[in-house]
Amino acid sequence: MLGYKVMRLSEDSKKFISGANSRLEFEAKCGEISMPGNGIYMSTNKQYVLDYYSGLADREALITFEFNEKEITFGNIEDVQNEVAVNKAKIVNIEELEE
Questions:
Q1: Which contiguous run of DSSP H or E holds residue 52?
Q2: Which of 33, 29, 14 has its CA nearest to residue 94?
Q3: Measured between alpha carbons, how far is residue 89 from residues 8, 38, 76, 85 in Å?
Q4: Structural domain total, the chain
């Protein structure tokens, strides 16, 4: 299943930085990542993510994740404007957003 998340980019575009906890950062490249707690928050609704989570930082990227819906730790994918979380997911696409 695919999910989407907007994250802040470092000045050199080499790291993603969490908006909820700026101490959480990881390399801005495709591959598997994980986050503590409930995990990586995202939505399966790309437009919802762009509408509500972009424009909060000077440099941002739209991240497309691939994840296993059986590993959801929070949320419901049946909601139209869903937000779900998984402990780990694979980044399959990165699109830097224009201001």
A1: helix 46-53
A2: 29
A3: 18, 12, 17, 10
A4: 1
Residue 90 corresponds to which tokens in the numbers above? 């694979």
Write out pLDDT tens, residues 14-69. Answer: 999 988 888 889 999 999 999 888 899 999 999 999 999 999 999 999 999 999 99
Domain of 44, in residue numbers: 2-97
**CB-CB contact of 6 with 63 (8 Å):** yes
Report the distance separating Cα 39 and Cα 87, nearest Å: 4
Q: Look at residues 23, 19, 5 and name the one whose alpha carbon lies nearest to residue 85.
A: 5
This prediction has a pTM of 0.93
What is d(CA 39, CA 86) in angstroms, rounded to the nearest whole number? 5
